[in-house]
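REVIEWER CHECKLIST
Item 1: Sequence provided? yes
Item 2: Single chain? yes
Item 3: Sequence as submitted:
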Amino acid sequence: MALQTLILYMCLATNGVDEPLNCTEINSAWVPFENKTLGAAINFNPHDLTILINKKLAHPEIPLEYLLGVITHELAHLKSFKSGTSDGHGPRFVSTCMKMSTAIGLDGRSCAAVYKDKTEPTSQ
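Item 4: Structure as written out by the authors:
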C-alpha cells in the first residue's frame, strides 16, 4: 500500500481526536534518514503539512502495526502544531498520541519519544 494512502487512512481514522486535520492536504515521502529517525512531521504553514517516514520501514519484514504506530506518532505532532500547543514529546503530545492510538486499536508504544523495537530488518 502506498505511503500517502496509509497516512490518509490513519488521519481520517483519528480525526475525531483533538484538533482535526485536513487529511487530503498532508504530503508524505519515504526518506533515507541517516540516523535512527523513524519519521518527521513538518509544518511549514497551516496548509503545508508533511510527514516523512524512514524508507527502512518500507521493508516487508517490518510489521504493518509498527509502521502505523510511527504514522500515528507523526500525525499527533501535526495535530499539536495545528492547535498551537506543540510541546515536543511532552504530556500534551503523549495524551493526543495515546488517544489516537486507542481510537484505532494500537497499543500506544509509538507515543514514546523513542520507539526502537523492530526498526531494522533482520539480516539474511
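Item 5: Key structural point noted by reviewer: The CA atoms of residues 54 and 90 lie 23 Å apart.
Item 6: Recommendation: ____
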